[in-house]
């Protein structure tokens, strides 16, 4: 759009940002995000204008307010989890929906393939794993694999592996989003065939009550990592009004924030798998409680809370 129209549409908002003397950490973060977005747009289309210089100064002001001392840096850390990450979930809700849809389709493909091809599960899971699980089923302990080894070593190994997988899923989005879709395909195919295997053995509901104690958080986080990869890839494929490299840098930064934000979720999931899932004889109510609590948290933090924060920031901007 022309520069005068751009200024007219945003002048009131910029004036409010400039005149405000007191900000909460949340307000600082939101203001800084909006100003830097406007600055990036101005640098792209009006690189030598007074508008760009003005926005650069305003962005510097907010940057100094956020980082001027250690106390505020700690507030910035809290603000990331309380405000910035949920707002990214809201901003990229379409990518979250696409990643979820892809993953569900791939899971169904895995389940149907396992149903109509007896060798498919072995192809995906490996002969050793299937043979071991069949032996455990014969012994009356179908989920004995989770009882092997040290709790602590299992926790550390699983956490490191899942974080690595999520980062690979994100980074592979640079290959025009196809790389991310490939990793969603691999994980979805594995989960679908794996889950069908237990249902075919008459252990479907028992597998849900055991495996999804940790799987609810773990699988959801991998899907969200897929969304981060789509943010990265789509920022290059569909730059909209930005120059392609400007859009890519923004997509890479936002996607990385989402991927890093998943680390605590993977750590909690690994804790469940290392220390809790191995207790396969726990009461059903406890298993259901953990699973339900995990699911409720994800729905709240990824969907409901971001919508609430977004509405609050929109109201604050317009008032």
From TrEMBL:
TM annotation in the entry: 96-116, 163-184, 196-213, 219-238, 258-276, 282-304
Respond yes or no to whether keyword Transcription regulation is given for this record: no
Task: State if Cytoplasm is listed as a keyword.
Answer: no
Specify the superkingdom.
Bacteria
Write the record's keywords in alphabetical order, separated by commas: Membrane, Transmembrane, Transmembrane helix
PANTHER family in the record, alphabetically? SLR1478 PROTEIN
Name of the protein this chain belongs to: Stage II sporulation protein M
